[in-house]
Each structure stands twice: as C-alpha cells, then as structure tokens.
Design goal:
CATH class of the largest domain: Alpha Beta
Strand content: 5-15%
Shape: elongated
CATH superfamily of the largest domain: OmpA-like domain
Largest sheet: 5 strands, mixed
Order of helices and strands: HHHHEEHHEHEHE
Structural class: alpha+beta
Helix content: 40-55%
Distance between the termini: 113 Å
Radius of gyration: 37 Å
CATH topology of the largest domain: 60s Ribosomal Protein L30, Chain: A
Strand order of the largest sheet: 1-2-5-3-4
Number of domains: 2
CATH architecture of the largest domain: 2-Layer Sandwich
Number of helices: 8
C-alpha cells in the first residue's frame, strides 16, 4: 500500500496577511478623496470640521496629515463668516462704483453746470438746423461729447470733408468758443469693414485722417487756441452699435468732439 503524501505546513491556508495593509491603504485613499472633495466647497468651517474628524480617526501618533487642512492655519481669518463679510464688502464697493459715482467738489459741480450750458447751445443749433439725425450730444464725467456721423461730413472711404458740409465744421467751431478755454479732443471712428487702397492701409489711418481733417476746419476759427486741440483715431475698435447691420455700421462711422472739463484730471 502506497503511503499518502503528507501535506506540508502552510498548504491548507493561503497567506492573506497582505490584505491588512492593502485595506488600510484603500481606506486612507477614500478618506483623502473625501477630504479633497470637501475642500472644494466654499464652506471652510465644514471643511475644517471634516478634516479634523478624519485626522482623529485615521492618524495615530506624531504630526497628523491634516494638521493644517487649509492654506491659512489657525485664527479666524479663514472662517466662513469672515469670508462672507469680505465678499459682502467687495459687492458693496462694486455697487458704489457703478451706481454711486464719487461726489464732486463745488468747483467740479460748477464746471459740470458750465458744460451743461454749452451742451444746451449745441442742442439748440442741432434743432434749429434739423440735424437731429446727424449730430447728438452726451454729458459724462469725462466731458461733453458731440458726435457727428460720417455721412454728414465724408463720402464712404474718404477722409476729406465734403465741400457742402464744411459749414457744419465752421458752425461747430463757433460753439467751441468759450469764456473759459477747455481742451478738446477730436476722434475718428470707422465700422469694421476692411479698407486697403492707395491712401489707407487700414481703418486706423482712415479714422485718424478724418479726425485731423475735421480739426483743421475747426481751427480756421482764429478764436480757438490750437494748443488745446488734439486728434485721435480709434479705427473700428470703439463701436456704438452692431456692425452686423447697415444702420449699425453707419452709426459707427463717425467723428466725435470731446470737450474736457477745466482741470479735468480732478474729475477722473
């Protein structure tokens, strides 16, 4: 009779000791992902509580992994109440900036009144000559803006003022005669239709030359001081209407005259 082969020690049960550290590792990974997820929340107080709870349960001895769960350890600066307070203050500042402009001094308010009087003179000229569709004015803290659409002054793609409309420049120059001289900026604007010909490589050049040519006619009035005048060209980059329609493009092709307040730097 053959002898049965004796089983060696250890063959009946597979060694499963590796499962213990493996399960601990998985537990730690799960805990880590939970804490990271909690950290993405804006509620910092709950994040602290959750991370401290995991620290107490999972970490034993030494310095805990979650000893400093937030970017700013300790103190009340990271509390949700503090953050909400800061956010509320920022919102209030934004509202004050947009809805409540800074109060002007008495001198600045008086200057705004003078600009309103000039605006009234310009508006009266516009009404008397039936130019409501071609000229309009607006008064802001930057100054008084007189907007002249290009179909009043220029042919399409041309920078020279039409002969029949030169008188408009002369009339406006008379309106710019003021008891208290102010700086004036003449700016040219175009639509976004590309232009490239023998004279202009882009809308930049066209807008600048329209402003310069119109300013030349203004300064034929010798009662105006040329030192207070400057010209700018903005090309198509400051539209006031959509360039997707014919009407919108017509509004964007324009010349603007900005009459600055006296000592205008104090108003900015």
């Amino acid at each position: 009779m053959s002898r049965r082969k004796k089983k060696k020690k250890g063959e009946e049960h597979i060694n499963e000791s590796w499962l213990l550290p493996y399960s601990d590792l998985l537990t730690l990974l799960v805990a880590l992902f939970i804490v990271l997820f909690a950290g993405s929340s804006v509620d910092i107080q709950k994040f602290y509580s959750l991370s401290n709870a995991f620290s107490n349960e999972l970490m034993t001895g030494g310095t805990g992994f979650f000893e400093y769960p937030g970017p700013v350890p300790g103190g009340n600066s990271g509390s949700s109440d503090g953050i909400e307070k800061e956010q509320k203050q920022d919102e209030e500042k934004g509202n004050n900036t947009e809805e409540n402009p800074p109060e002007l001094t008495e001198e600045q308010q008086a200057e705004q009144k003078r600009l309103e009087e000039i605006q009234g003179r310009v508006n009266s000229y516009v009404e008397e000559n039936g130019l409501e569709d071609q000229l309009d004015t607006s008064l802001t803290i930057e100054g008084l803006s007189v907007r002249i659409r290009d179909n009043v002054l220029f042919d399409s793609g041309v920078a020279e003022v039409r002969v029949e409309n030169i008188n408009i420049a002369y009339e406006i120059s008379k309106l710019l005669e003021m008891d208290i001289p102010r700086s004036v900026i003449v700016s040219g604007h175009t639509d976004n239709v590309p232009i490239k010909n023998a004279r202009f490589d882009s809308n930049w050049e066209l807008s600048v030359m329209r402003a310069v040519n119109f300013m030349k006619f203004l300064l034929e009035n010798h009662n105006l001081n040329p030192e207070r005048f400057s010209a700018k060209g903005y090309g198509e980059f400051q539209p006031i209407a959509s360039n997707d329609t014919v009407e919108g493009r017509a509004q964007n092709r324009r010349v603007e005259i900005l009459i600055l307040p006296r000592d205008d730097e104090t108003l900015r």
